[in-house]
Amino acid sequence: MHVTVEEAEARGRVLTGRPHFARVLIEKGYVASFEDAFRRFLGEDAPTYVQRKSKTTDEVIAIVRHAGGIPVIAHPVRLGLQRDAERDLLLRFKQAGLVGLEIYHSEHTPELQAHYRQLAAELDLLPTGGSDFHGNIKPGVRLGTGADGNVRVPASFLDRMWAFTNHG
Predict the structure, then answer these.
(1) Tens-place pLDDT, residues 4-16
(2) Rounded to an integer, what distance in angstroms lies between the CA atom of residue 41 and that of residue 105?
(3) What is each CA distance from 84 to 6, 14, 92, 104, in whole angstroms?
């Protein structure tokens, strides 16, 4: 099997990741699907998985703030924490400079959206949202509306983010 970084980069445009390597594997006939590529080669349990070097959350928050950005925890449901542990972790991140929490996401049920809205209000975090659209890598997720239209981010969220970037 022969796959080059350049082949994956050609499919990744600006940012190249495992989904782009999966596309090359599919195009070359090495695997049948994205799921097959991740199961056999690219997933964390696969023999060819390479652990990436990561910065700590505190470091990333500081970098984003220094660059003038708004550090947000995206898809908090994926943290996989119980409610108390989730709140404690977000509070610690807020103390490190966290500014926002994603409320609307294609994997968030209405109940989760309500939970994260309440949590953001309690912790004084900016509510945010996004569809998590990644092109045909995530079939069924539409740009700006999520899965089956479940992502409707209020314009007031954007207004609050603009206000933060101008005064935060």
Answers:
(1) 878 877 776 667 7
(2) 28
(3) 44, 38, 12, 21
Alpha carbon distance 55, 97 (integer Å): 15
- Residue 22: what residue type? A
**What are the pLDDT digits (tens) for 92-123?**
999 999 999 999 887 878 899 899 999 999 99
- Among residues 44, 115, 47, 46, the alpha carbon closest in space to that of 84 is found at 115
- CB-count exposure of residue 38 (10 Å: 0-12, 13-18, 19+): buried
Percent of the chain with pLDDT over 70: 95
Q: Residue 14 is which amino acid?
A: V
pLDDT of residue 53: 82
Whether the pTM exceeds 0.70: the reply is no
- Structure token pair of residue 159: 């207004």
Residue 128: beta bridge partners?
A: 102
> How many CB atoms within 10 Å of residue 45?
7
Count how many residues are written for the chain.
Answer: 168
Sequence-ordered strand ranges (E) for the chain: 72-73, 100-104, 126-129, 141-142, 146-147
Domains delineated in the chain:
5-42 (no CATH), 57-167 (3.20.20.140)
Rg of the chain taking only CA atoms, in angstroms: 18
- Say what percent of the chain tops pLDDT 90: 47
